[in-house]
């Protein structure tokens, strides 16, 4: 390799203290003093996270000994001029059990490169070697990553082994997370390309064969969707395989996409076990898998121009997350149907749940999905108790926008075109070969023109109303034209406070008070601890529902709450539940 290859060594130094020890070797540092910088955020999670706060110590050396180094901002270091090769030694505290950061103890180690790997500013385009050292407390661990092994290099890793891996540049180094430990694993091929499912965490009797069978169908369906002729996986430009790194916990849920892998966290209860009935929420796990795999094309290669390339030291603002997350949220469940892992009634149920969530919040009348996209950094990723009253999700309303566009295109072209044509044009124009040439992202104002080019349909009025504007997507009539009936009824027939709650040690705490509902009009607030209704103690959310069931809409009740340490009394006039439950069914079929 070139003499300018930048090397990173990761030692599993302290499992009890959750510390990685990193050695960074820079063959040709900037003569006037090298600048080092750790990312402030990780692509796919739009919030400044200041990963550098977990660097506990940092020392710099050249051939003559220690080199001065000081911070110039929260995630940047300035080194003094050095003689020849520069060595940087630092430790990283890793105790973030999420898809975004790094986590390390005696049972496993996981990291995203954005938490560990300082950029050598000015040399981000140089090739990198990553040397993963085996742990000292066990000889049973293996390595799971989509990062290619450094074949031909001294100490090159074997498949799943410790040793050297290679990346063409710093961006690629960051984009291949690593799991080390003794997980449960299964492999399969999708159109000739290897995929690995890696499950970390305790799951007795995990039905790996069932999961692999279903995920294989999803992967094949998506490869066929984007590449119907070649059926070639997109990640072959950067890896020889795709890896699903799944952390299993009691109640986790989430995912983060990478160019040839994804990091997932899921609930143990959502996974099937051998010989047992399929869990009720197994399709939720499959939907998560489908969502993150779809991102392999749509976000990791088809990107907003604002992300091509990423600037990881500051927010990268775009108004297009409704396209990149919203369209993905539409296709994730649709791909489960097309792959044959769920049937149409199950798909209708998932679509209805999305509608329920979007239409529940008043925030959709105050913020458009384009505004929600732009405000992701300051609002969507910094939600509080009032967010349902103030925000709309570019994920869920974006999915309904995608559905509305799909139906509009199909109706106006007599089913000759659909949103599928738009996705394939995006892939051909902005995604295919993304890492082989200078990146060309999707311009902020390009979507109307791309849809017109792909389908012949002018959707400027639709976008003005439902993307830049705040109108609900008119799905009922559009679905009816396809033979699908959309019905809505109250989610609960009992009178309602119109609040979101969670059980607390002292009773029931109000998590959100929905705007213009009975609790809001009476003066109750998020954070209030609900103690009693008409003198009867409220011990749980179930008890609250039972007490309300003894009343009718219009009844007035006396509610006692603690606000902070103050006991307060309110008179609340109950109302019918405003939350709606949507149902979809074919005209000649049963409701879903």
Key structural traits:
Neutral Protease, domain 2, 4 domains, 28% strand, seven-stranded mixed sheet, 592 residues, 30 strands, 26% helix, six-stranded antiparallel sheet, alpha+beta, 15 helices, Immunoglobulin-like
Tell me the total number of β-strands: 30
Reported for the largest beta sheet, the result is: 7 strands, mixed
Percent of residues in beta strands:
25-35%
- The CATH C-level class name of the largest domain: Mainly Beta
Count of distinct structural domains: 4
Fraction of residues in H or I helices: 25-40%
Could you report the average pLDDT, rounded to the nearest whole number?
95
**Structural class estimated from helices and strands:** alpha+beta
Please tell me how large the radius of gyration is: 26 Å
What is the fold named in CATH at topology level of the largest domain?
Immunoglobulin-like
Alpha-carbon distance between the termini? 58 Å
Question: What count of helical segments does DSSP give?
Answer: 15
Overall, the morphology is globular
Kindly report the oligomeric state of this protein: single chain
Would you give an account of this structure?
Helix content is 26%, strand content 28%. The protein contains 15 helices and 30 strands. The strands form 7 sheets. A 7-stranded mixed beta sheet has the order 5-4-8-2-1-12-14. Strands 23, 24, 25, 26, 27 and 28 form a 6-stranded antiparallel beta sheet that branches. A 5-stranded mixed beta sheet has the order 16-17-18-20-19, with helices on one face. Helix 3 (208-226) packs parallel to helix 4 and helix 3 (208-226) packs across helix 5 (321-339). The model has no long low-confidence stretch (mean pLDDT 95).
């Amino acid at each position: 390799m070139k003499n300018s290859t930048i090397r990173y060594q990761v030692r599993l130094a302290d499992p009890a203290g959750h510390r990685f020890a990193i050695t960074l070797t820079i063959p040709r540092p900037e003569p006037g003093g090298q600048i080092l910088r750790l990312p402030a955020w990780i692509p796919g999670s739009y919030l400044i996270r200041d990963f550098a706060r977990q660097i506990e110590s940092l020392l710099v050396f050249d051939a003559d000994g220690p080199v001065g180094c000081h911070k110039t901002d929260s995630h940047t270091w300035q080194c003094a001029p050095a003689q020849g090769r520069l060595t940087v030694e630092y430790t990283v505290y890793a105790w973030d059990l999420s898809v975004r950061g790094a986590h390390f103890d005696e049972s496993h180690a996981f990291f995203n490169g954005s938490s560990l790997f300082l950029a050598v500013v000015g040399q981000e385009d140089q090739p990198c070697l990553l040397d993963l050292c085996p742990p000292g407390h066990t000889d049973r661990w293996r390595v799971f990553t989509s990062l290619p092994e450094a074949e031909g290099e001294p100490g090159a890793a074997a498949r799943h082994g410790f040793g050297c891996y290679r990346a063409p540049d710093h961006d690629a180094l960051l984009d291949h997370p690593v799991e080390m430990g003794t997980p449960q694993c299964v492999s399969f091929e999708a159109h000739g390309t290897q995929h690995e499912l890696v499950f970390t965490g305790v799951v007795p009797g995990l039905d790996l064969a069932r999961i692999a069978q279903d995920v294989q169908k999803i992967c094949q369906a998506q490869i066929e969707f984007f590449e119907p002729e070649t059926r070639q996986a997109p990640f072959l430009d950067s890896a020889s395989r795709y890896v699903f790194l799944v952390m299993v916990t009691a109640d986790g849920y989430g995912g983060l996409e990478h160019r040839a892998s994804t990091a997932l966290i899921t609930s143990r209860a959502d996974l099937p076990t051998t010989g047992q009935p399929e869990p009720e929420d197994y399709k939720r796990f499959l939907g998560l898998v489908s969502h993150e795999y779809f991102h392999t094309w749509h976000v990791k290669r088809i990107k907003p121009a604002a992300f091509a390339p990423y600037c990881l030291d500051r927010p990268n603002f775009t108004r297009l997350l409704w396209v990149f997350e919203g369209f993905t949220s539409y296709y994730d469940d649709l791909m489960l149907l097309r792959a044959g892992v769920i049937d149409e009634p199950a798909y209708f149920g998932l679509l209805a749940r999305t509608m329920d969530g979007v239409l529940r919040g008043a925030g959709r009348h105050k913020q458009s999905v384009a505004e929600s996209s732009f405000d992701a950094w300051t609002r969507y990723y910094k939600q509080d108790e009032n967010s349902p009253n103030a925000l709309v999700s570019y994920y869920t309303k974006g999915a309904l926008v995608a559905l509305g566009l799909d139906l509009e295109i199909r109706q106006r072209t007599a089913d000759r075109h659909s949103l599928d044509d738009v996705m394939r044009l995006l892939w051909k124009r902005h995604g295919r070969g993304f890492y082989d040439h200078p990146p060309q992202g999707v311009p902020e104002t390009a979507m109307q023109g791309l849809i017109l080019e792909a389908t012949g349909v002018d959707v400027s009025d639709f976008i003005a109303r439902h993307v830049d504007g705040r109108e609900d997507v008119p799905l009922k009539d559009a679905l009816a034209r396809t033979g699908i009936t959309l019905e809505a009824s109250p989610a609960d027939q009992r009178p309602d406070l119109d609040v979101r709650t969670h059980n607390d040690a002292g009773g029931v705490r109000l998590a959100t008070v929905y705007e213009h509902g009975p609790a809001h009009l009476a003066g109750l607030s998020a954070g209030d601890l609900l103690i009693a209704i008409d003198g009867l103690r409220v011990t749980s959310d179930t008890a609250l529902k039972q007490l309300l069931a003894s009343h009718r809409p219009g009844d007035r009740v006396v509610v006692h709450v603690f606000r902070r340490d103050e006991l307060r009394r309110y008179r609340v006039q109950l109302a019918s539940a405003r939350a709606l439950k949507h149902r979809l069914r074919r005209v000649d079929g049963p409701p879903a």
